[in-house]
Amino acid sequence: MMLYFFDTEFIEYPGHLDLISIGVVCEDDRAYYAISKDCDLSKANEWVRTHVLPKLPTDASLWKSREQIKQDLLAFVKGMPEWWACYADYDWVCLCWLFGAMMDLPKGWPMYCRDVQQVVDRIEVGLPQMPPSVEHDALMDAWWTRGAYEYLHGQWSQSVYEHTGCFPYPQRLE
Question: Which domain holds residue 53?
């Protein structure tokens, strides 16, 4: 079982959820990021236009069809994944819809993901906040989610700190 941490940015309006971008970080430090060129950005609401769209890279190699993102994820994800996100509900739907219906998920993939926010709520602990300059960038948010998971499980990794600036090495009590 390999842990995968992910986030999506999306456009939502009644009856629709349209993937803008997806970031995935694996526990082995591999990362994947793509922007859907199939998304109709003209339907973005004011909040998305202000907080998400300005952070999208212009690098053409990152703009891919939903089909290409699906194929990339099939190549990126190894074995039976355990998926984690933060406030995961819509993110999970965006990820699953790349494959069609829930029954079309790849063999060995769970039909649910785990949510670090539910763990936070259950144990009533606070987490470091993502710097606003990088918040709502799907890849940065995926790195943050990995950091939150590790923090909640008493773990730490240099790579998370290097990517997010959050979750500095915990100080030992002497």
Answer: 2-164
